[in-house]
Each structure stands twice: as structure tokens, then as C-alpha cells.
Write a structure and sequence with these properties.
Layout (H helix, E strand, L loop, with lengths): L2 H4 L2 H15 L12 H18 L13 H13 L10 H16 L3 H13 L6
Helix pairs in contact: 2-3, 4-5
Length: about 130
């Protein structure tokens, strides 16, 4: 395949459709198509899902970890907030711990105080 083909809007659309189906752990009919872009996106999405949540053969966890969830844990670490880990599998907790500790390493109480003041001024309460 030529690299020019990868940058076409049709390829990107099929790739992202495949990625969305791959990152979704719930069984779906026709997950693999005869389309190279879709299949490539599906495989990439499935790899990302399993990197954060473990393999599907281990079952679908009670709570799904995605990039947004990991960014929330990173932010909690940056702000020195406690976290709720109920409902996550041991595999997911290993992934979450890395993100949270990455935030903790960068935690600066002075920055947190200023941020909490700004949030409070805007009516946002953190618990």
C-alpha cells in the first residue's frame, strides 16, 4: 500500500470506524471487514483496549479504563487527591497506579492551592 492512500479521507474514516469497534470490548457482529483501513483500525483499537484493561479472554471488567479515565487519575495525582479504585481489576490497577504516581511525582502543594482557589471562585468544588 502506498503512504498516499493512508492520508485520504476515506482511509481515515474507515480506520477510525474500525478503531472505535476495536476499543469497544462488547461483542459485535461483523467486526472484521474486507477493508484494509477498517481492519488496521480495529486491530489498533483492540490493542489499546487490552493495554489498558487486559485481554478479552479474561472477561470484560466492571469498569472500563480509557485515556480519559487515566488522565483523571494523573490529574488526581498532580493535585494530591485521593482516588477511588473500587471496581477495577488488578491488571487495571497496575495501569492506573502508573498514571497516578506519575502525577504524584509532579505534585506541588503551592500549585494545588492556587488551582483550588480558582476552581472555588468559579463554583467548582473538589472532594
Amino acid at each position: 500500500m502506498s503512504t498516499k492512500k493512508i492520508f485520504t479521507p476515506a482511509y481515515r474514516q474507515d480506520y477510525f470506524e474500525g478503531y472505535a469497534k476495536g476499543i469497544n470490548p462488547f461483542p459485535q457482529a461483523n467486526c472484521i471487514k474486507g477493508n484494509e483501513a477498517f481492519n488496521s483500525g480495529f486491530i489498533s483499537g483492540r490493542m489499546d483496549y487490552e493495554e489498558m484493561n487486559g485481554t478479552l479472554k479474561e472477561g470484560i471488567p466492571q469498569r472500563i479504563v480509557n485515556n480519559k479515565v487515566l488522565e483523571d487519575f494523573l490529574l488526581s495525582g498532580l493535585l494530591g487527591l485521593s482516588i477511588d479504585t473500587d471496581g477495577y481489576t488488578p491488571y487495571q490497577l497496575d495501569v492506573i497506579e502508573k498514571w497516578y504516581l506519575s502525577g504524584v511525582e509532579k505534585y506541588d502543594p503551592n500549585h494545588s492551592i492556587y488551582l483550588f482557589e480558582i476552581l472555588e471562585e468559579n463554583g467548582i468544588q473538589l472532594g
